[in-house]
Amino acid sequence: MKALLINGYETYEGVRENRLNRSLVEYTKEILESKGYEVKVTNVEKGYDVKDEHDKTLWADVIFVQTPIYWFSAPAKFKEYIDKVYIMGYALGTMSKGDGRTRSDPTKSYGEGGLLTDKKYMLSTTWNAPQQAFEKGNKFYEGMNTDQALVALHKTYQFLGIEKLPSFSIYDVFKEADREQDIVNFKKHIEDNF
Description:
Blueprint: E1 2-7, H1 19-34, E2 38-43, H2 50-59, E3 62-68, H3 76-92, E4 120-126, H4 146-149, H5 151-159, E5 163-164, E6 168-170, H6 179-193
Parallel strand pairs: 1-2, 1-3, 3-4, 4-5, 4-6
Helix pairs in contact: 1-6, 2-3
């Protein structure tokens, strides 16, 4: 098995460093390698070659995405990575066959053109929001869970035909309520789902 681990962290002055997200990627790498996976890691913030990332995506059996959530979405550099790498796959016809629809077969639906149906992905996110923000009855998220709040990221991978693995989130990152237990839970989640 082959795994591509993407660290989507982006540094902003006055915001904490990449320690938590980087550590989660390192833990994932260690666990997967101990299970016999061949692992490649991309740190988006450090720069990347679009063609290499395109090729790594095609190479991988599983894509693990570790990203903080800034202003309710992925950081700008990670979004740019998505745009550049996956648009290359779209344009070359290596990741999707258009959007799935054709003039000759109107029964096909939008979003069914993904060619990466032999792959899986997992989203692991860090939030400043508390976990309670995603509980039923919460006014701000209107009862959405984290997967529903991350619909744009999930739909990106679904569009490419990639199967979803259970997501993981760490909440309240600025308050660091119980980080040790978060790490224990994270490692168990990786062990159980790969």
